[in-house]
Specification:
- It is built from 17 helices and 23 strands.
- By secondary structure, it is of the alpha/beta class.
- It has three domains: about 150 residues, FAD/NAD(P)-binding domain; about 120 residues, FAD/NAD(P)-binding domain (3-Layer(bba) Sandwich), CATH 3.50.50.60; about 110 residues, Enolase-like, domain 1 (2-Layer Sandwich), CATH 3.30.390.30.
- Strands 1, 2, 3, 4, 5, 6 and 18 form a seven-stranded mixed beta sheet that branches. It has a five-stranded antiparallel beta sheet with strand order 19-20-23-22-21, sandwiched between helices. A four-stranded parallel beta sheet has the order 10-9-8-14, covered by helices on one side.
- Strand 1, helix 2 and strand 2 form a beta-alpha-beta unit.
- Helix 1 runs parallel beside helix 5, helix 2 packs parallel to helix 10 and helix 4 crosses helix 8.
- The chain is globular and about 90 Å long.
- The chain starts with 14 loop residues before the first helix and ends with a helix.
Length: about 500
Amino acid sequence: MSDSSHSHPLEPWDSHNQELVAQVHPKDWQNPTPDERYNLVVVGGGTAGLVCAIGAAGLGAKVALIEKHFLGGDCLNFGCVPSKAVLSAARAFKATRSGASLGAPVSTEPGNFGVAMERMRKLRAGISHHDGAARFRDLGVDVFLGEARFVAGDAVEVADQRLEFRRAVVATGARAFVPPIPGIEDTGCRTNETIFELTELPQSLLVIGGGPIGCELAQAFARFGSRVTIIDMAPKILPREDQDAAKIVHESLVEDGVSFELAAKVVRLESQGEKKIVILERDGQEIRLEGQEILMAVGRAANTTGLGLEAAGVEFSRKGVQVDDTLRTSNSAIFAAGDIATPYQFTHMADAQARIVLRNALFPFGRQKSSDLVVPWCTYTSPEIAHVGLYEKEAEEKGHTVETLTIPLSGNDRAILDGDTEGFLRLHLAEGSDKILGATLVAEHAGEMISEAALAITHDLGLSKIGSTIHPYPTQSEVFKRAADTWNRKRLTPSRRNWLERYFQWRR
């Protein structure tokens, strides 16, 4: 669900976007007649809402799902799905130009951006069937398309119909935050909700924001052939990540042609004909940057406007709906899940929280806590940065004495053979044990590999368990086994080695 003013039809209104909209917001949709009372009413049809609705219906509950915009939410329509399709195309563009050292044919052709974007729209439309209104209706969910508004602590209205419930879930998500920069209304900018509407490659792109979304799309458009500049108030990109990891990504972006204006404040935007101008200020000096397009990627804003949360007695703030550790709001009959209820704004977190809500909202026993979740995440630049668990500083703040192991990929045979040696695995262990507190991995496919560490942390499997697991050779995931071997060697203190030498001398 989104507060965006973005109205369909999507641009371009081709067969792929028509197929998408026919699934996620069919224009001829007829809302059902409401049931007398629902076990669960779900407000918001993004990942968290869809998982709640389909899970509860599958258990036999009477469920209503309300969505005012596009089912599938940000992930399907404007986030994970289109962005990863675009990143995949950008990797292919890069590969055609950088294979000379491998003896591969090298292309000097510009490539076809329009084809890459059409492929994205086609794939997105195909995936949309999983989130479509008709599918959820056929699975027993009452699907209402329209704007939801709570009118009481146990009732919500949509399209002039009143839905009463025993339990409800607020899963309205978040949208791209557009700050009130002077001149932004006249100049205009794109966000993740509109950048994927492009059919022609902008010659130049100014990206405001050096976080994950900004870095991913900056690299992609640079690989397509745009002149890209990342602008950020912070002195470094990806400030929440391990700084050694962020530095590797920074260097990779530079190699792909991305420019940077960091530690600079955007003071206003202007337009001059077809050009958009960003005026920055750094150390009292004014800097003017020109671009064909501006991408705003400075964070997310919770979708709370117009929901009538006050009428339901649900407390909320600018950051979202306030929940306890069981994801219950200040109204004991209403829960919340996904981007509206957590700083971890990832699709997989929304899915995990929805499963907690299903148990806690529908059953009077077996309470689960959101704080028990071990949450991995990944920034899908090239190379990728994946992380799970605690960073070193966080671990120390929680009272741990930390031992850190860093294993560079430059010593991993598969990484050498693939030409992907710029990266490392960094593990934070509780000193004196093999307990893994946190892991950061920088590798071309770090997101595919981090689950090994997530499994270990979730189920308290120490590094020695990883070390005793056979890893296929040659793979980059062997870096985990190498870390275990390194830890084991550190346990061989001089006194232990002396004892072993005497033992083997005796055994000769």
